[in-house]
Amino acid sequence: MFTGIITGVGRIVAVHDLGSSLDHGKRLTLQAPAGYLDDVGLGDSIALNGACMTVTTLDVSRHQFTIDISAESLARTSGLDQQGSVNLEKALRANDRLGGHIVSGHVDGIGQVSHFAQVGESWELRVLAPLVLARYLAYKGSITVNGVSLTVNQVVDQDDGAEISINLIPHTVENTALGTLKAGHSVNLEIDTVARYVERMLRVDTSLKAPQ
Predict the structure, then answer these.
(1) How confident is the model over 66-92, as a mean pLDDT?
(2) Cβ neighbours of residue 66 under 8 Å, at least 6 residues apart?
(3) Cys bridge to 16: 10, 27, 87, 138, which one at CB 3.0-4.6 A?
């Protein structure tokens, strides 16, 4: 479980195939900020651009770790099959502050950046979410973009989905990998957990009796 508050920006420095077919995944080697891995152990969960992964090897002295990502995860995420910067978040502890919102680390879909530009001291990020996720997006609701907990400022429904507008303060741009985004880039999206249950409750057959 995560909160969407990024605790470091790392970098995928190597990508190795785990097999020769499309059914095989990849092993990623990541460079973390100095000291980031001091309290991390083998088997710990770290979210990479919002996708929950398991630490498989550690080299604390070099600030590096590896994760194995399956073909299934590669097919449902963006930006985890090549070298580049990634947002990092360690799993939530029971006594931690919930600074963002409840995030599972399971990517629900891929969005596309349609606009990213500075407005005053802040930045406006607009993302086109796929149609299957549009029903879960609401004004002032929460959305996770590449692992970052953000607030939706506007939703514009379209035939092929919904375009959401998000305001990024300078701190977010400077301390996450979102500052490298450009129009046309793909991003990992996770909808608010509460929205899942609301949608399910509205859709379920209310004539069904609850278990006694």
Answers:
(1) 96
(2) 27, 28, 29, 30, 55, 56, 57
(3) 27
